Amino acid sequence: MYVILLGAPGAGKGTQAHTLVEKLHLAHVASGDLFREALKQGTELGLLAKSYMDRGALVPDEVTIAMIKERLAKPDCDKGVILDGFPRTIEQAKALDDALKGMDKRIDKVLYIKVSNEELIRRLSGRWICRNCQASFHEISRPPKVTGKCDECGGELYQRSDDTVETARKRLEVYFQQTAPLIDYYSQKGILVEVNGEQEIQLVERDLLADLK
Ligand code: AMP
Prior knowledge:
Layout: E1 2-6, H1 13-24, E2 27-30, H2 31-40, H3 44-53, H4 61-72, E3 81-84, H5 90-102, E4 109-114, H6 117-125, E5 127-130, E6 136-138, E7 157-158, H7 165-179, H8 181-188, E8 192-196, H9 201-212
Parallel strand pairs: 1-3, 1-4, 2-3, 4-8
Antiparallel strand pairs: 5-6, 5-7
Bound molecules: adenosine monophosphate.
């Protein structure tokens, strides 16, 4: 099963992806995590990605597509994949279709997590992420039990440098210009399902699982 989680930054893709991969035993392929990992390792790819991420801009398609193709070729992807944060442009979506065709696979479903603009800004600016397991918390809607510590693994929580109000606005602008057209792209293919992302986390999870069954 190949599934794409589509939605604006802050819609809850990362949080939901973690639950879905656990429950469905799929591989989690998150382009943003792959860039952050590359940066942590100090690679050329990581440094290049940082220059775009810090501005809230998209990393060029060519680089991103090559990175994802390499990731999808890894053996753990044979059991199926949850794609989180990729594709983000029509060009990426087309490249993904081609790459999967070459592997005799295709996207089975696109789950679009819909959240209003005001809610997205509010969520992005109070977000804290676990350095170890990437679980996501929020100062108001999902505070950790112990300040600065992850409820799930005890890891240290940090605020992403691209989660400032200014960069968050820019990332949303980029989302509406470049990524939102994917809603029509997949809808026309008849594989898009919309889920209300403003419900409680468990209810979003319930709806996503129901759509995948
Ligand atoms: P995310 O963790 O998915 O919010 O991604 C963080 C940042 O990584 C984005 O703001 C982009 O700069 C970059 N990025 C992640 N995924 C992609 C993608 N599919 N295409 C281009 N840039 C991406």
